[in-house]
Amino acid sequence: MADLVVYTFSPAWGLSSSSPFALKLIKWLEIAGLPFQQKFADNPSKGPKGKNPWIEVDGKRIGDTEIIISLLIKQSGFDIEAELSLEQKAISHTIRRMLEEHLHQVLEWELFMHPAGYTGMREMLATMAPAFIVAPLLAMMRRHFAKQLHARGIARHSDAVVAEKGKADVDAFEALLGRKPFLFGEHPSMADVTAFGLIAPLARWPMRTPVADYVKTRAKLVDYIERIDKFGAKARGSA
Ligand SMILES: N[C@@H](CCC(=O)N[C@@H](CS)C(=O)NCC(=O)O)C(=O)O
């Protein structure tokens, strides 16, 4: 396979990136055992879809983890869900959509709208950017996310309702996981690597936001995230 470069947000909270979608893609690549180089790009507007992450392969830039992974499955022949039944694949798809299209909104809301998340983001940015830029950059990011999250719907609710909605996703996911090591048994599926992307930041970040605090009380879920974190070959090249 041609050289693969993965552009992601910088590492955070002991994770290889602060971006849930980058964590998902990197975990999939690690499990596939495909070599890649991770480069940091904290401005998503530089990506082909204006979102992070994206890849560069064969001189082409490709955005969106679903499209990227479909392409890499075709190129490499590795399919993480090859052993799953059609029904299991459908369940995996449904769980992934819940996490990506709903829990992701709650996560962004906690990072940019909740005061504890916002303060934590300010501290994180202060380690990455010159001091004079931090306040205006963060204010710009908050305006951007306030608009986006209002358009998507989540920011129209009270803080308490957003927290309940996020916790409902966490509870549903935990019930589906049950006592299994991964959702469909001994090997992670697409839904598991997506859960790693979405839930690991909530389990790891130090900010006291409601859904992240809740995740940290779910011992089984925290163990599950640690299990996925250790799963897969370390195929990453130097940053
Ligand atoms: N469907 C996309 C979603 C990517 C996405 O939402 N990325 C977030 C970071 S986790 C982003 O770039 N947000 C910046 C923005 O929306 O302006 C994928 O699968 O890659």
What does this molecule look like?
- By secondary structure, the chain is α+β, with helices and mostly antiparallel strands.
- The protein has two domains: 4-76, Glutaredoxin (3-Layer(aba) Sandwich), CATH 3.40.30.10; 86-230, Up-down Bundle (Glutathione S-transferase Yfyf (Class Pi), Chain A, domain 2).
- Helix content is 59%, strand content 7%.
- It is built from nine helices and four strands, in the order E-H-E-E-E-H-H-H-H-H-H-H-H.
- It has helices spanning 20-32, 65-76, 86-112, 115-126, 131-152, 159-177, 190-204, 210-217, 219-230; strands at residues 4-8, 37-40, 54-57, 60-63.
- A four-stranded mixed sheet has the order 2-1-3-4, covered by helices on one side.
- Helix 3 runs antiparallel to helix 6 and helix 4 (115-126) runs antiparallel to helix 5 (131-152).
- 36% of the residues are buried.
- Mean pLDDT is 95; it is low at 235-239.
- The chain binds glutathione (GSH).
- The site of glutathione has 9 residues, from helix 1 and helix 2.
